[in-house]
Amino acid sequence: MTIAPTVDNGAGAGAGTGATLDKDNFGLKFDEFLKLLTTQLQNQDPTAPMDSEKFTRQLTQFAAVEQAIRTNSQLEKLLDMTRAGQILSAAGYVGQEVEFRADRIYLPASGDAVVSYSLPRSAAEVRLAVFDSDGELLAERRLPGDAGPHRQAWDGRTDAGVRLGSGEYRVTIEASDADGRPVPVSLRTAGIVEAVEFAESGLRLVIDGVPRPVDSIAAIRTPRD
Questions:
Q1: Which of 61, 91, 121 is the last residue of a domain?
Q2: Separation between Cα atoms, residue 158 and residue 177, nearest integer Å
């Protein structure tokens, strides 16, 4: 909305200089607007004063813009308070071990990477495959096939026994029964929450240096020694 106070109907001095008030670049404060309005009234032609209807419309439009800007300011404050409240409520995640739905695992500089999965029924064969960022197969492992949840460690070594560097690796788990029919697998990975942050996409947990959305979290537990 743009409001341009100008003097019509043959206004005198000052008629050619208008001021623009808009909600995107609100350079004039309320008291400045009153000064401008007073100057405009003082310099109008007494024989051709500003039309009262237009004058009233100007004041009404300005009030609407000012109210909209104040409302936006209050909404921004409310959003900031909401974000802060979400971060504070999620602070309890920090230091906890969480499982989250993902197809990637993080291998630390020392120690194992942990992968969690769940089988709705028993499987005759369950195979874990680990890939690098280029899609090259690095390692394969056979995993337990009992029905229910599982947590398995990967030592970070390739099939040739070479220890890989720390970082994220893509994983897949495929399972099949004794007849060769596929068994659905719910794949999860685990890590320690290091921080909580708020991004445009919402609240995120920083796990092993990687931001994860909160809605991907499937389980929380106290870290094991």
A1: 91
A2: 26
Residue where a domain terminates, one of 91, 123, 140:
91
Which residues make Cβ contacts (< 8 Å) with residue 138, sequence separation at least 6? Answer: 130, 131, 132, 158, 159, 164, 169
CA-closest candidate to residue 95, choices 188, 206, 217: 206
Structure tokens at 175: 């399972």
Reported as a single tens digit per residue, the pLDDT across 65-118 is 667 767 776 777 666 666 666 666 667 778 888 888 778 888 888 889 888 899
- Whether residue 113 sits in one domain with residue 73: no
Cα distance between the two ends of the chain: 62
* Owning domain of residue 214: 94-221
* Residues sharing a CB contact under 8 Å with residue 122, sequence separation 6 or more, in sequence order: 145, 146, 147, 177, 183
**Exposure letters 37-48 (e unless 16+ CB within 10 A, then b):** beebeeebeeee
pTM of the entire predicted model: 0.50
By DSSP bridging, strand 182-183 and strand 186-199 are unpaired
Looking at the structure, do residues 157 and 200 belong to the same domain, yes or no? yes
